[in-house]
User: Fold this.
Amino acid sequence: MAKACLLRLQLHFGGCRSLKEKRRRLRGLRDRLGQAANLAVCESGQQDAHQRSEWSIIAIATDAGGVDRILAEAERLVEQFLDAQLVGAQREWLC
Assistant:
């Protein structure tokens, strides 16, 4: 049976003064993460806040180790690619 996990990431955009600037900093994140197989991603919270954002990422694989690898790579891409601070991350196993 396949395993699935939801990863919620909370981001802080220090010094960000507008939604336009926040969107500029986020540009391309969905495209980069969307290239990974077995991964779904969306901005799920804080869309109207200038300095905060929440992203939900769901990974599916045949085993828990595969899901862990997929989500670890997604977190690494977020930390490496974004001009933002990762301030929180929670995982919730769905099956």
Observations:
- The helical segments are 19-26, 29-34, 64-81.
- The chain has one domain: 3-93.
